[in-house]
Amino acid sequence: MQSLTLIQAITDGMRTMLRERDEVLVLGEDVGKNGGVFRATDGLQEEFGESRVIDTPLSEAGIIGSSVGMAMNGLLPIAEIQFMGFIYPAYEQIMTHATRMRYRTMGAYSVPLVIRAPYGAGVRAPEIHSDSTEALFTHMPGIKVVCPSTPYDAKGLLISAIEDPDPVLFMESLRLYRSVRGEVPEGKYSVEIGKGVKRKEGEDITLIGWGAMMPVLEKAAMEAEKKLISCEIIDLRTLYPIDKDIIAESVQKTGRCVIVHEAHATGGLGNDIISIINDTSFLYMKAPIQRVTGADVHVPFFALEDHYLPTPDRVMEAIEKAIYF
Amino acid sequence: MQSLTLIQAITDGMRTMLRERDEVLVLGEDVGKNGGVFRATDGLQEEFGESRVIDTPLSEAGIIGSSVGMAMNGLLPIAEIQFMGFIYPAYEQIMTHATRMRYRTMGAYSVPLVIRAPYGAGVRAPEIHSDSTEALFTHMPGIKVVCPSTPYDAKGLLISAIEDPDPVLFMESLRLYRSVRGEVPEGKYSVEIGKGVKRKEGEDITLIGWGAMMPVLEKAAMEAEKKLISCEIIDLRTLYPIDKDIIAESVQKTGRCVIVHEAHATGGLGNDIISIINDTSFLYMKAPIQRVTGADVHVPFFALEDHYLPTPDRVMEAIEKAIYF
Amino acid sequence: MGYEKDFPMQQIVDKDGFLILEDYKDKITRDLVLTFYRHLIRVRTFDRKAKNLQRQGRIGTYAMFEGQEGAQVGSAMALKENDWMYPTYRDHAASITFGHSLPTILAYWKGRVEGGVPPKGKHIVPPSVPIATQLPLAAGTAMAEKYKGTNNAVICYFGDGATSEGDFHEGMNFASVFKAPVVFFNQNNSYAISVPIEKQMNSKTIAQKSAAYAIPGVRIDGNDIFVVYFETLKALERARNGHGPTLIEAVTWRYGAHTTADDPTKYRNQEESEKRREFDPVTRVEKFMKNYGYWDDEWVENQKQLVEEEINQAVIEMEAMPSPNVSDLFDHIFAEPTWTIQEQKNAYLTHLRGEASCNH
Amino acid sequence: MGYEKDFPMQQIVDKDGFLILEDYKDKITRDLVLTFYRHLIRVRTFDRKAKNLQRQGRIGTYAMFEGQEGAQVGSAMALKENDWMYPTYRDHAASITFGHSLPTILAYWKGRVEGGVPPKGKHIVPPSVPIATQLPLAAGTAMAEKYKGTNNAVICYFGDGATSEGDFHEGMNFASVFKAPVVFFNQNNSYAISVPIEKQMNSKTIAQKSAAYAIPGVRIDGNDIFVVYFETLKALERARNGHGPTLIEAVTWRYGAHTTADDPTKYRNQEESEKRREFDPVTRVEKFMKNYGYWDDEWVENQKQLVEEEINQAVIEMEAMPSPNVSDLFDHIFAEPTWTIQEQKNAYLTHLRGEASCNH
Ligand SMILES: Cc1ncc(C[n+]2csc(CCOP(=O)(O)OP(=O)(O)O)c2C)c(N)n1
Ligand SMILES: Cc1ncc(C[n+]2csc(CCOP(=O)(O)OP(=O)(O)O)c2C)c(N)n1
Ligand SMILES: [Mg+2]
Ligand SMILES: [Mg+2]
């Protein structure tokens, strides 16, 4: 097996599917000749040509809108949005076309589209390059949202997303692009959308996160072990639909939970998870669920981003709050 | 005092402020000569002229973007978006300009902008005219969201919104426009943004809603009284920031809660409220919090909208579920 | 800045029904003229019927197209079987002409999701409601045809107001950059609800906006079905031959309200609309038929009757539709429902059964 | 469709520094030329310094403008004190010329929110990052000036890539419909990161996009600061006089990478950039000064030294800034923080104090 970084695994996933099916196309700003501003599409235009790996105009509504039109017409576009903070010009296209076409035609047309978007803070990028706004998409009916934290999952989920008959927003952590590395099978395999994974077994408390927060959770869990607190760690991987069962099963065992995400507290996915726990596990909970999230403030200019992002220390504090409630 | 419908109260609020301050402008599609497709701006262009009540091109990003530019330059624009379902082309402008300009300039520029948007289902409107997507805005730092359910509150909150130094999204229930009527003072008064109101005292359970859901809650509460269940009803009025205290105070008394909204369950404000209760009132809760909401599906074509919208019956079921938990 | 002179309004048949471009003489066959006429009276009858149905509360809000039939029928007739159509809420004359089913269109306005379903084997996308957002889609659908190497083309309808939206621009630019086989067919009826075109844009024509994309722009009399048909044919031909998109501005007029929910007396003098009947697209073909000897009372009466029957039948079918299926609320969001949707559906169906048993 | 001939590229001074439009002879005063030169060397020195600071890790990613100084300085010099400027991330030469503070600009790239604050009494909006989204804002700011009845105007910068965005179109259309006093100043440097203009648009010029809005469009040599200055002055004059917006396309070139994070060898031959130095905007003024007797070695040396000192001083100031204030994360979202933000701030400051006490 090859050992790849997260971004290499993503490239490999696209290459695998470009080889597998002629209907697969890659399009976006700078994805062709330049191979993407992060090099996620490096080498793809050379291998598959300009008709399959397409440099588009600087036009997010154009990219998503035309991808929807292609997807309705039998193709399987993978559209790159250069940074999640620049997806909003395409919001209308996602909101009223990509996600509604199947319903509006009772399935006569569907939109098997993948939207790839690098997200998140922590790499000292200029302002507005660091948004983590998954919640603005999980509230839209008709689109799935995934966010891998390992190279293996990244490739497997990307392949599932490409094969999914409906739109999938595929969020890629900028911070993890080159900072995680792992074994990735050659060729085609898939990781099921909608399933979380337990990264660590534990008894006392459940830590829930995804994407760039996973290393933060792992560090916090190590700290907690020193204080003899045993943490169970769940990596959600899919943000819509959230894997309810893995959450319920875990919190029913531990009775305590800390949820961690970069996005703002209000309207963040943490609240969806609390709601799932309320629905499934009310009687099991021994303490209020703790959230460690970005504040209700803009992701700041980078000089302050470390103060915005959840840290192992803050997670540790939340763990203790839940444990010593 | 005058007895006005909700929409008349809104018109009155705009007229009051147009008279009060020269900086106040109204702009949007069809707001001038036509007086708005719902007649919310009826008579305003006649009274204040074309330079203050402006028919714009069909261009939501243009409307919001230019309003931001005006607001930064000393004016107090009230921008109408014809239906909430058509606000998404302006999403980028709201997300990265209206809401971020104060932060990005440390207050050197601010954006005292009001965005009015009729929302919600239930009036047999054509598809995509019935969205209730407040949660897509409450998750944005830098904008407040209000949603009145009475003519008194409508005018008072609108005036507060116009005087607020920051952007406010003002959601107007299509369904309530002409179906509620009430006493409205002449001239200027205000209702504080950020404060909910108790519409009914009760002992056994707290019902929380806003806007078009208020009559639904009231009917359900009447049904419940017949079964000797005493409901306390809270009208949130402001959706960001949510009035935490009024919620905590009430659920700490009743120990039970039903939250009702039109929007989809996942990512809906119901989850934010559950999260507030988790944070403030964990030990008081006697039963899981119940939500009665739209499903995770598109607001349907109108032949099915009654099956999408929360009804008093569904609320009643939720009340019983919470009571007999 | 006087671009309007670069885009003079083209006509083939004048308002009195006389051929003014002799070149077209041979191309205008009897069959073509009669087909024009048949479609025109069919869609006009449909439109009036639908408006009445709304008045009677048998369907919901409806967007009338009376006055715009020449533009819609002429352009739709230029399409080939496998082409794609992106209509708006006002373009039922186009979609009917292209082969849409009348009961389906009525169902659309009755708030039935069945109303969005295209007819079998025909690529008719449901009416676009958010203005101008269909242009990038149409560009993409056309790019896909090009990618697949077919000769199919796409037609995309939109109004004068739509040109102010960013998506108009992005769609045009994409199509021009990728030489997508798409015809952007604008119906300039001078109004976007109440907003007249002078407030919508500073340019005197819409055709001149083609300059921004360096694609052909054509300004035509949208009430002259002859010029509409032949210019759309040409544009489609260019598209099929790999020469990319064309912007057609068909100048026309809606006689009535924006929709049945609109009161046009608030913003314009309805007398003007009456005067416009002088340029009526249906009457013009009538006059042409009379001028050139194609008119046959009996045939016309016969056609009118057929149309009447067909439309009455459509209303019957629409009203005979089984009542809406609650499952449709949940079943078409994803190919397979997520657990959230499945749970919500189960809960709701249980609730409905509970209600049903309570009430009986 | 051959619009490019309607928009020929205008020049006043050719690449060898010779005046080619004699009409301007009297308008080109010694003072003007020396001011051009002083600004040009100032901003070029700043730009190179900033790039080096990034290399040394003393600031973050930085967007160089070398090659585009003529377009930026010339246009900014045409502004009056109370005008507004909407720059992008690449337009520091413009904002510096208009009076922005150098340490503030460096702070911007150091990830400091202080970098977004305009200088006192000067209307300089923070650099626009989401491409083209500033155009509607600029239109609105200009509409407000018009509403207030001032003679102030707005200049709005954007690149060739920005023209593909819907917001470009909506901003242009708003400004033209409302005759807003704004100059849309496009720097066509032929690239949007890696994407060459031929893939960005089908039109040969950007100036011709003015046709869509029926406003004046002007195509100029953006490396000829003379034509930039005089054409921007004219456009501002039109704006102030109530004649509405102008679209200026200044054709230029960036020599270097898109930003310090970009590797241009992936997508273009860097030799071409070196060849472009023949058209350099700074050298051109040098040549002009030499050709027409304005060159004075001593004055030039003196200016270079002053600039060097000023910039070194700015770096010192930037680096002497107190470390970022954590409160700034919370304090500028609303005029008054909401309870959510206040609670989050309190909790975070408590956390920080806890950490501080733990670590000591
Ligand atoms: C994005 C969006 N904004 C607003 C509306 C409301 N609206 C419906 S039709 C219309 C006017 C459209 O005018 P035009 O494009 O000229 O088409 P016409 O109705 O004249 O056929 C408006 C503003 C909408 N449907 N979508
Ligand atoms: C909406 C949006 N999409 C994408 C980006 C990423 N991006 C930053 S600069 C740039 C290219 C801009 O090109 P151009 O407008 O020509 O300006 P230049 O950089 O050449 O000055 C892109 C794609 C962005 N900042 N905003
Ligand atoms: Mg129109
Ligand atoms: Mg450029």
Automatic annotation (TrEMBL), chains A, B:
Q: Which cofactor does it need?
A: thiamine diphosphate
Checking CDD domains in the record gives: TPP_PYR_E1-PDHc-beta_like
Domain of life, source organism: Bacteria
Keywords in alphabetical order? Oxidoreductase, Thiamine pyrophosphate
Q: Which part of the chain is the Transketolase-like pyrimidine-binding domain?
A: 4-179
State one molecular function term (GO). Answer: oxidoreductase activity
Check the record and name the InterPro entries matching this protein. Answer: THDP-binding (IPR029061), Transketo_C/PFOR_II (IPR009014), Transketolase-like_Pyr-bd (IPR005475), Transketolase_C (IPR033248)
| Pfam families per record | Transket_pyr (PF02779), Transketolase_C (PF02780)
Q: Which PANTHER family does the protein's record reference?
A: PYRUVATE DEHYDROGENASE E1 COMPONENT BETA SUBUNIT, PYRUVATE DEHYDROGENASE E1 COMPONENT SUBUNIT BETA
Q: State what protein this is by name.
A: Alpha-ketoacid dehydrogenase subunit beta
Q: Which organism is it from?
A: Ureibacillus endophyticus
Automatic annotation (TrEMBL), chains C, D:
What top-level branch of life does the organism fall under?
A: Bacteria
Which cofactor names does the annotation list? thiamine diphosphate
Signal peptide extent? none
Domain Dehydrogenase E1 component span(s) in chain numbering: 41-326
For the keyword Ribonucleoprotein, the answer is no
Identify the InterPro entries for this entry: Alpha-ketoacid_DH_E1_comp (IPR050771), DH_E1 (IPR001017), PdhA/BkdA (IPR017596), THDP-binding (IPR029061)
* Principal EC category: oxidoreductase
The record's annotation in Gene3D superfamilies points to: 3.40.50.970
Q: What is its EC number?
A: 1.2.4.1
Q: Which molecular function terms from Gene Ontology are attached?
A: pyruvate dehydrogenase (acetyl-transferring) activity
* Coiled-coil region: none
Tell me the keywords, alphabetical order: Oxidoreductase, Pyruvate, Thiamine pyrophosphate
The catalytic activity, as recorded, is: N(6)-[(R)-lipoyl]-L-lysyl-[protein] + pyruvate + H(+) = N(6)-[(R)-S(8)-acetyldihydrolipoyl]-L-lysyl-[protein] + CO2
| The UniProt record lists the keyword Cell wall biogenesis/degradation | no
Single GO biological process annotation from the record: branched-chain amino acid catabolic process
Q: Fill in the subunit field for this protein.
A: Heterodimer of an alpha and a beta chain.
The entry's function note states: The pyruvate dehydrogenase complex catalyzes the overall conversion of pyruvate to acetyl-CoA and CO(2). It contains multiple copies of three enzymatic components: pyruvate dehydrogenase (E1), dihydrolipoamide acetyltransferase (E2) and lipoamide dehydrogenase (E3).
Q: What is this protein called?
A: Pyruvate dehydrogenase E1 component subunit alpha
Q: Which organism is it from?
A: Ureibacillus endophyticus
